[in-house]
């Protein structure tokens, strides 16, 4: 059961990041939008937690960094600072 739960966490996290990516590529979302930042932050955080549980350190480096940068963007946006090019 535990393995199935973490597989679900992986899939949900991946889908959140992919939805943001596809939306930007389709010009449906801007990279400085709250929704883009939240989708990336939440999805990458879920995958980083899964990487810790699974002991997948390379994946943790990728997703942990992605989560930190995404949350950094959220904090910057909440303080009224630019978060990127805005696509």
From TrEMBL:
Keywords, comma-separated and alphabetical: Membrane, Transmembrane, Transmembrane helix
Record-annotated membrane-spanning stretches: 6-24, 36-53, 59-76
Residues annotated as domain CBU-0592-like: 9-77
Protein's name according to its UniProt entry: CBU-0592-like domain-containing protein
Pfam family, one: CBU_0592
Domain of life: Bacteria
InterPro entries on file: CBU_0592-like (IPR058058)
């Amino acid at each position: 059961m535990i393995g199935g739960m973490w597989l679900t966490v992986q899939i949900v996290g991946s889908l959140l990041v992919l939805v943001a990516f596809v939306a930007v590529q389709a010009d449906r979302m801007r990279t400085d939008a709250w929704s883009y930042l939240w989708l990336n932050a939440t999805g990458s955080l879920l995958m980083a937690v899964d990487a810790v549980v699974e002991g997948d350190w390379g994946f943790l480096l990728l997703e942990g960094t992605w989560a930190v940068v995404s949350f950094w963007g959220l904090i910057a946006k909440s303080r009224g600072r630019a978060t990127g090019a805005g696509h």
